[in-house]
Write a structure and sequence with these properties.
binds S-adenosylmethionine, 7-stranded mixed beta sheet, 7 helices, 11 strands, 26% helix, alpha/beta, 4-stranded antiparallel beta sheet
Length: 283
Amino acid sequence: MNVIACTDCRGPLRFEPGERALTCTACGAVWPLRGGLPCMYREAEIRGIDRFMRVIYDGAPRFHDPAVRLLVPLFELEGSERRLREAYMPRLSLDTLADERSAVPDGDGGPPPVRILEVSVGTGANLPYLKSGLAQAGLGPRPVEIWGLDVSLGMMTQCLARPEHRDVRLVLGDAHRLPFRDATFDRVFHVGGINAFRDRAAALAEMARVARPDTPIVVVDEQLDPARRHSLYHRLTFKAATFYDRDPRAPVDALPPGAYDVLVEQASRFFYTLRYRVGQRPA
Ligand SMILES: C[S@@+](CC[C@H](N)C(=O)[O-])C[C@H]1O[C@@H](n2cnc3c(N)ncnc32)[C@H](O)[C@@H]1O
């Protein structure tokens, strides 16, 4: 089964060995390889705040993970990066995967793979937590495919450089226009980028489109815990961490029509977890 599809028309893609691009067999669009990865967005579409953030992530990808490890406890004065990631990963409900039947048969007669997508995978810092959850999910002989999409070649290159991520399928793409077929993934999640996206509603709708109907979609980013009191230090460090965003909060008002089972909770003082599902879309 082709998981990646043409970003423009969602048609199937052809890749001939020796070619340096994927070509859509339906509309003829050509998607080049960059750094060995399919690049499924057009440069002109990455504009405004998205272009600015990409400059930041492309500029210092090696410092991203150490900075997160250091700054989460320094700014929040409690917790740790690990504790934060361990707080939101359970919302993916990986433990119920074994009982769910993938709607996407693979066509080769074997058990359909479990497919998980992280939108904005970055350097892959969530992947060890994801893999540990999958290992405990009792999936038996079902193969697992982990997919990661990101707009930053710098971040993806860091991800690729880690031997433990070699099995992850990486695609360069824009969260606003995902290059995947409808209802492809058994879980979709996103951490740390959406507050800066130029159109959060488009990104949330795209995650729902590529997710299998009714499966949990999990989104995490900054929000100052509304149920707690915050010192001046916390307010200032939160402001510094979210300088690009006038009102950093869970984008509940931008969820696609029909979103249900919506849950917003704090993963830590500075980060929300938003979980939602969307059912079968009308044909
Ligand atoms: C704070 S990092 C988080 C990386 C990773 N998810 C994590 O938890 O460590 C945000 C990521 O969002 C990516 N990003 C920003 N804008 C994007 C867009 N329009 N489409 C896809 N990814 C984007 C950045 O390149 C960066 O890798």
